[in-house]
Every structure is written in C-alpha cells, then in structure tokens.
Write a structure and sequence with these properties.
The protein is α/β, with parallel strands linked by helices and 395 residues long. 53% of the residues lie in helices and 12% in strands. The protein folds into 3 domains: 256 residues, Rossmann fold; 52 residues, no CATH class; 78 residues, AhpD-like, CATH 1.20.1290. An 8-stranded mixed sheet has the order 1-2-4-3-5-6-7-8, sandwiched between helices. Strand 1 and strand 2 form a beta hairpin.
Amino acid sequence: MPFASCNGARLFYRLEGMPDKAVLIFSHSIGTDHAMWAPQVLDLLSHFQVLRYDTRGHGASEVTNGEYTIELLGADVLRLADSLGIRKFAFCGLSMGGAIGQWLAVNAPDRLTSLVLANTSAKFGERSNWETRIKMVREGGMAAIVDMVMQRFFSPHTLAKSNAYFSSVKSVFLGTDPAGYAGCCAALRDFDSRESLRNIQVPTLVISGDRDISTPWAGNSEVLTREIPNARSLQLAAAHLSNLERPRSFLAALLEFLLPEIDETQRSEAGLSVRRATLGDDHVNRAIAAANDFNREFQELITRYAWGMIWTRPGLDVRTRRLLALATMAALGRWEEFAMHLRSGLRHELEPCDLKELLLQTAIYAGVPAANTAFHIAQKELESAELQPSKETEK
C-alpha cells in the first residue's frame, strides 16, 4: 500500500493518472477519508494527475499523539508532495481540507496553481462547541456523535433515501480513531485565518451548500469570497459534503474553474485535435484531403463548432458523448454517420455491452425499426472488429 513518512507521521495516499498531467490534490473533511472524492476522480484523470490522501489521524494514516494544528496538517501536505516529487499543484479541500488549503495559500503560495475551498470557513464556530465534541468522542467514541454529524454532512432529503455514499461515509466515520478525530477537532477549534485572507493571491473558487448548517454561506463562504482577492463563488443545493450530494455539479465546477479556457483563435486547432482523437487520423486525413472550394468552409464549420466548441466541453466524458451521438443518429436514421462513429467508438471506449444497452433504449424511445437497422449495422461492425458480445455458458 502507498505510504509516505511525512513530518513525523505515516500518511496513506493514492496517486492516480498520467505523470505528464498537472497535479490536483484533494483534502477531505474531518471524520471522512480520501475515498469521499471517488465520484470526481475518474472524470478528472483525463485532465489531471490526482493525489488523494488520508489526513493525519484519519483513514489509514497514522494517529499521532496530542492536539493537531492546521499548520501541522498543511506541512504534512507539503512534505507528501515533496516525497512524490510534486513541486506545484492545484488544491481542493472541503471543510477541514479547506482550512488546510487556506494555510497553504498563505504560507506556500509558490506551490499552488489554483485553490478550491468547499464548505469551509476562516473560523469554525465557537471554541466551546469543539471542546464539547472532543469530550464526547473521548468518553463515548465516535458513536456518541455519529447521528449529529450525519445530519450535518447530508441534507434531510439524502438521509431519507437509501444512499450508498451516506452508508459509506457513516461507516468510515464510525471507524475513525477517536484520538485522531479529537486531534483534528483541536486544529479546527484553534484555526482563524480571517486576518490573512487578503494575502491569498492564488486563483480561488469558493463552493458552498445552501443547506449546509456547519458552514453556511453567511459568515463563512461569504467571508472567504469577500476577503480573498478576486475569489469566485458558487452555491450548490447541498449540505456539508456537497461533492457527494451534488457530485456532477461539483465536478463541473472544478473543471470549469481549473481547466484553461480555449481561446477563440485556438478553437479550430482544439477541434481538430479532438476530432482526430475521436474519429482517428485516417478518417480526418481523408476528410481534409477531400476538401475543396465547395465544401472547405463546411469542414471548417464542423471542426470549429462541433468538435472545437461542443466535444471539447468537459461536462461530459467522451464515452458519454459517443453514446449520445450514436443514439441521436440511430433515431434520425443517419446510418452512414452512425457506422462511422460506431467504428471509432469500438476502437476506443465502447464495448459490445454499451451498444446493446444503447440500442435497447433506442428501440423504446425511437422505435423498433430504427433499433433493428442499428443492431444489424452494429453486428457487422462487431464481426469486422472481431468483437462479439459475451455469451453465457449453459449449465
């Protein structure tokens, strides 16, 4: 398992993605672990190398003695990055992770490229509230406060449903070492960055939840947005763990903020790159070679707008866009385009099981005749590519 000795503690981490990509570090809330970011990671790996870790006292990381400070937890991040050879990184922290992010932005601004502060604050409530919580977990363990914390983590609507994330977070919370939790409670109790927020110069996005009773907009995200120069803000329909209650919206906000905008002068170039990656060089080269005075502007239109404006948008991954394109073309009977996109999809992300589900859906919503033709075309393409749907073995 990946562990690193950092700043006097053994930290568990997960580093995923291609080493040539920019690094994005995630830092979790108190009482959770690195797995809380699972809904966002897969879609981020095409853009970033993602580093998640368990904060000191949490998850698989070491529980050290005594009370912790945000300075200590921030130094842990820097030493972890150093041990992995990571010099600069974007940082996204939620709640306690957001406090760590603020410390990093003030004390190690040369290390950060961007900062996302989610459901966090420059000062986490009254000292007495944290003293009470520390006393409860020391005397009664994590079970003593689990119901109260879950009601803060999630909105009543989420708690009323059978939610896999809720169950997982509750299990992780109950499995957290009370000593590590109490140590981090002390760090949040003593944290106050209000006087230093003006010193944060790194581009910052502040995300809040309109149902968050732990760090509501007023007095928390409101202060961060106002005091951090040029900070952007976004409110989601969520409680404290906004990335779990609104995973797609949270992801979209990250991508929009962290990825560079495509300049209009680069739109055609970006579109051509995506077009090649999606359809293959052979197809695109043939289309370019066939361009003439009559159709050249049409080719440029497709490259600039279809590929450069729509397919470059990060809100949907390429696999999803392929499936949407295939379903639309099957419904409209655009069979030449359907076959072309199908061949390309089978060379990349799509598998026979994807096609089966897509065409069954098409049969219901676009009609059996359309699905029938699409199944015939798909069968031929699967045979040509030597990809046959899986067969069940009779017993």
